[in-house]
Amino acid sequence: MSTQPELPKKVKIVEVGPRDGLQNEKEAVPAAVKVALVDRLSRAGFLNIEAASFVSPKWVPQMATSTEVMASITRREGTIYSALTPNMQGFEAALASRADEVVIFGSASEAFSQKNINCSIAESIARFESVARAAKDNGLRLRGSISCAFGCPYQGEVPLDAVADVVARMRDLGCDEIDIADTIGVSTARKTQAVMQVAAQEFHVDRISGHFHDTYGQALANIYASLEVGVSIFHSSVAGLGGCPYAKGATGNVATEDVLFLMNGLGIETGIDIDQVVDAGQFISQHLGRKATSRAGNALVAKRAG
Ligand SMILES: CC(C)(COP(=O)([O-])OP(=O)([O-])OC[C@H]1O[C@@H](n2cnc3c(N)ncnc32)[C@H](O)[C@@H]1OP(=O)([O-])[O-])[C@@H](O)C(=O)NCCC(=O)NCCSC(=O)C[C@@](C)(O)CC(=O)[O-]
């Protein structure tokens, strides 16, 4: 008789659409539209929404409205609103904007680190030290994000040791949560488990999150594979929005509607209302003038229409 691995009974879905999802849009999305999106997502029940990014507007112009967005959203009690902060300049802006969580973002790939944040991995960790200290001093949550943990658009393979090393460094900085990110969506299920297991040797598995882009259509399989090894936090973007400005060809994050459909089917609690997420996906897709890429979202819309 075969025994199946026990899956977590409950997961946290971190909605990253307003940041990771929109950051790569060529046309400026008005702050009011971003605010309306975040508010819809808050009402749908997310406990964590990545709403802003305090990076150089020359590097990522779409995120230049982050202060305005954070000032205008309606905050739901109990929901963590996160912001990316590559350095102290970003941290000060996040603090002033009343972010609940700041995200330092590094990479397991040297090449990607240079392209994305203009410094080596070691330099980035040194830069993050002051941000981490300031987060603790100000009582903010601290999250560490590790790009290219499963492969890099510039250097190709990324060794497991490199992932373990950055996880340990993020842990030592005092991160409350660490994201293991498949920036270009190249991982497959067994590889995902190997990487997650290496990460879990360095950090508590229940505070590791899986951040999967769906470039090769593997994201849901990678999420299921991660569940099997005890990961219970996942990032996703409503309507499957997204792509990274420094990873050409990378498509969006896995669509939130698809992840919710999977979790609902598995009987895993999320606390999120899928119908409201579908509505939010339709709202932003209409604004962007294209169809949502969420398979479950589009199927549910078609079903509603009869
Ligand atoms: C990190 C830097 C700033 C270094 O960029 P740099 O040019 O090395 O920085 P610098 O300190 O020399 O500053 C240069 C200029 O940027 C300004 N500046 C400096 N810092 C800030 C700031 N915080 N906010 C606003 N402005 C800032 C600074 O004031 C100065 O302005 P100037 O004097 O030329 O007018 C730059 O490389 C940058 O902003 N990179 C952002 C890259 C980015 O946002 N990438 C996308 C997000 S990561 C991602 O998507 C991956 C993830 C997390 O989703 C996981 C995954 O899927 O892999």
From TrEMBL:
<protein>
    <recommendedName>
        <fullName>hydroxymethylglutaryl-CoA lyase</fullName>
        <ecNumber>4.1.3.4</ecNumber>
    </recommendedName>
</protein>
<dbReference type="Pfam" id="PF00682">
    <property type="entry name" value="HMGL-like"/>
</dbReference>
<dbReference type="InterPro" id="IPR013785">
    <property type="entry name" value="Aldolase_TIM"/>
</dbReference>
<feature type="domain" description="Pyruvate carboxyltransferase">
    <location>
        <begin position="11"/>
        <end position="278"/>
    </location>
</feature>
<dbReference type="GO" id="GO:0004419">
    <property type="term" value="F:hydroxymethylglutaryl-CoA lyase activity"/>
</dbReference>
<dbReference type="GO" id="GO:0006552">
    <property type="term" value="P:L-leucine catabolic process"/>
</dbReference>
<dbReference type="InterPro" id="IPR043594">
    <property type="entry name" value="HMGL"/>
</dbReference>
<comment type="pathway">
    <text>Metabolic intermediate metabolism; (S)-3-hydroxy-3-methylglutaryl-CoA degradation; acetoacetate from (S)-3-hydroxy-3-methylglutaryl-CoA: step 1/1.</text>
</comment>
<dbReference type="GO" id="GO:0046951">
    <property type="term" value="P:ketone body biosynthetic process"/>
</dbReference>
<comment type="similarity">
    <text>Belongs to the HMG-CoA lyase family.</text>
</comment>
<dbReference type="InterPro" id="IPR000891">
    <property type="entry name" value="PYR_CT"/>
</dbReference>
<keyword id="KW-0479">Metal-binding</keyword>
<dbReference type="GO" id="GO:0046872">
    <property type="term" value="F:metal ion binding"/>
</dbReference>
<keyword id="KW-0456">Lyase</keyword>
<dbReference type="InterPro" id="IPR000138">
    <property type="entry name" value="HMG_CoA_lyase_AS"/>
</dbReference>
